[in-house]
């Protein structure tokens, strides 16, 4: 079980004195990290940081916020039905200059540098701790994975996409590699994007080497802690974003070793508890819940929280219509099956898609996937569900299916189309017995890989980041009930917008003023 806190790390709140990137504790550093057991406890604390409330805000809840607010709800395929609040955030209007003073622009920077600072404390101290070399290697590798993952996440938000970076010459992030060096922190310029990815790779390569040399292993219940497969998975994802296709393919294949795809039954089980497919996840139990601030409190179809009941999450019509009816995963979405069912989606002036009666409504309320007072909307999702109320449950960060899509996408770019077709078949056919080996080639094959990636990983925090790296316009098409099944889309008028891929003001978050005021070396392009 993950512990509620780690005594070796002082998880502090945000104040006017910058970012709290270094831990504060009444316990001396030499005592806090004196043994490998205490260092391991500190790593456990990093896992707990991924499911904490931050900055006194209801929605800022660790990693769940990054997945939902910065990748799901602001992307192309995921909608919060009838929601009008936070539209500037989810329409990507708060990403560039306006985000410099915004809590929402500051939150990811604050959260990930907090993880980085605490990971650095472990990395700096563990070599001198009392314990076996094997234990030291394992703990240090885990901390390095946390740091590399955090660096990667920051690049996706605060940096240009790789294809627009002049081969990495544009600005990256601040590479803070020591826990206690405030003088350097206050005058440390951003690395280039290339240098940032060099550091991410270096951290992960070292972690891979250390994991491989250690006899320590995480248990099956410790899915929230990094191990060798996690290190490979983080590197595969980072390499994909960096368009380093061979590294992405190689690491994706290694990451999924020992992690088999979940079957049809497990896929329909709510995604709230680990199974063999999960590579890394975030732990949440009833005795350590964030209540209304949890990940599923915003996205779970059965959650009792107001944010989930009143504004359920739905998939875009444009995406789901491209998936064959023979795919059993399609059953986890409330898709109209006739023109008559479609025309029942007529609440809120006919633009939001709420349903209050009829076959489509009955199918939803009888599914067992809703809370008793949940509103029903067309195309709402039942894939992601809370395991306890009001919206709690563990959730995955990496699973084997992602690694199949990563390798297949990389193989398309490498000209290995036979391999890409087989990987796509291997990851789709278990859920669609009618799916046959693709005959597509070139860009058509790549687009098929992207399509199934979008569908399979829906709601798991990939939408916006994938659109960014693909340089794909976000095009949310409006619901027009009168058009019947020929309706172009399913989004409400608030979110039925187009966001051009080449509009940097909508795709890059500005470095927050708190960092600029603290760090004299920060520059803006």
Structural overview:
The chain is mostly helical and 525 residues long. Among the domains are: 1-216, Serine Threonine Protein Phosphatase 5, Tetratricopeptide repeat (Alpha Horseshoe), CATH 1.25.40; 286-377, no CATH class. The chain is 41% helix and 5% strand. The chain contains 21 helices and eight strands. The strands form four sheets. A two-stranded antiparallel ribbon has the order 1-3. The longest helix is centred in the first third of the chain and has 26 residues, at 133-158. It starts with 28 loop residues before the first helix and ends in a 7-residue tail after the last helix.
The CATH topology annotation of the domain at 1-216 reads as: Serine Threonine Protein Phosphatase 5, Tetratricopeptide repeat
Q: Order of strands across the biggest sheet?
A: 1-3
CA gyration radius, whole angstroms: 22 Å
* CATH architecture tag of the domain at 1-216: Alpha Horseshoe
Helix fraction bin = 40-55%
Biggest beta-sheet profile? 2 strands, antiparallel
Look at the structure and give the CATH class of the domain at 1-216. Answer: Mainly Alpha
Number of separate helices: 21
Question: Strand tally, please?
Answer: 8
Terminal residue distance: 45 Å
Name the beta content range.
under 5%
The rough form would be described as globular
Instruction: Quickly give the structural class.
Output: mainly alpha
What are the low-pLDDT stretches, counting only 5+ consecutive residues below 50? 3-26
What is the typical, i.e. mean, pLDDT?
91
Give the H and E element order.
HHHEHHHHHHHHEHHEHHEHEEHHHHEEH
């Amino acid at each position: 079980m993950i512990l509620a806190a780690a005594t070796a790390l002082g998880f502090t709140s945000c104040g006017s004195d910058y970012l709290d990137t270094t831990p504060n504790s009444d316990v001396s550093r030499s005592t806090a990290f004196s043994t490998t057991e205490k260092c391991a406890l500190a790593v456990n604390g990093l896992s707990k940081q991924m499911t904490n409330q931050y900055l006194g805000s209801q929605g800022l809840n660790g990693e769940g916020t990054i997945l939902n607010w910065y990748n799901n709800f602001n992307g192309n395929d995921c909608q919060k039905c009838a929601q009008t609040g936070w539209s500037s955030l989810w329409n990507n209007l708060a990403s560039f200059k306006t985000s410099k003073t915004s809590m929402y622009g500051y939150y990811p920077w604050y959260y990930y540098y907090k993880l980085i600072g605490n990971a650095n404390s472990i990395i700096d101290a563990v070599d001198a701790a009392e314990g076996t070399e094997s234990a030291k290697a394992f703990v240090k590798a885990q901390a390095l994975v946390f740091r590399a993952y955090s660096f990667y996440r920051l690049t996706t938000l605060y940096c240009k996409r790789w294809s627009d970076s002049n081969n990495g010459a544009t600005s990256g992030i601040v590479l803070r590699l020591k826990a206690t060096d405030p003088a350097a922190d206050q005058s440390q310029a951003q690395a280039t994007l290339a240098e940032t990815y060099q550091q991410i790779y270096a951290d992960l390569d070292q972690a891979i080497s250390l994991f491989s040399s250690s006899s320590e292993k995480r248990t099956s219940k410790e899915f929230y802690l990094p191990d060798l497969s996690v290190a490979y998975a983080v590197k595969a994802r980072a390499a994909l974003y960096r368009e380093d296709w061979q590294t992405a393919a190689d690491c994706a294949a290694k990451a999924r070793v020992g992690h088999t795809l979940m079957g049809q039954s497990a896929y329909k089980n709510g995604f709230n508890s680990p199974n063999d497919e999960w590579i890394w996840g975030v732990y949440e139990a009833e005795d350590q819940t964030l209540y209304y601030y949890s990940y599923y409190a915003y996205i779970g179809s059965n959650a009792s929280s107001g944010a989930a009941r009143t504004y359920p999450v739905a998939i875009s019509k444009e995406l789901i219509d491209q998936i064959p009816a023979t795919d059993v995963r399609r059953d986890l979405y409330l898709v109209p099956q006739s023109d008559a069912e479609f025309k029942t989606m007529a609440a809120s002036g006919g633009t939001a898609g709420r349903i209050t009666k009829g076959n489509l409504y009955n199918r939803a309320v009888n599914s067992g996937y809703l809370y008793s007072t949940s509103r029903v909307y067309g195309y709402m999702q039942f894939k992601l569900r809370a395991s306890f109320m009001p919206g709690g449950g563990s959730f995955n960060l990496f699973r084997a299916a992602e690694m199949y899509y990563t390798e297949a996408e990389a193989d398309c770019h490498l000209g290995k189309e036979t391999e890409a077709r087989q990987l796509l078949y291997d990851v789709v056919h278990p859920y669609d017995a009618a799916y046959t080996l693709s005959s597509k080639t070139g860009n058509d094959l790549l687009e098929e890989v992207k399509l199934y990636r979008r569908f399979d990983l829906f709601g798991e925090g990939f939408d916006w980041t994938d659109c960014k790296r693909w340089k794909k316009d976000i095009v949310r098409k409006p619901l027009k009930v009168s058009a019947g099944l020929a309706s172009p889309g399913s989004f409400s008028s608030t979110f039925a917008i187009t966001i051009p891929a080449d509009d940097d003001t909508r795709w890059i978050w500005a470095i927050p003023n708190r960092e600029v005021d603290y760090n004299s070396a920060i520059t803006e392009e």
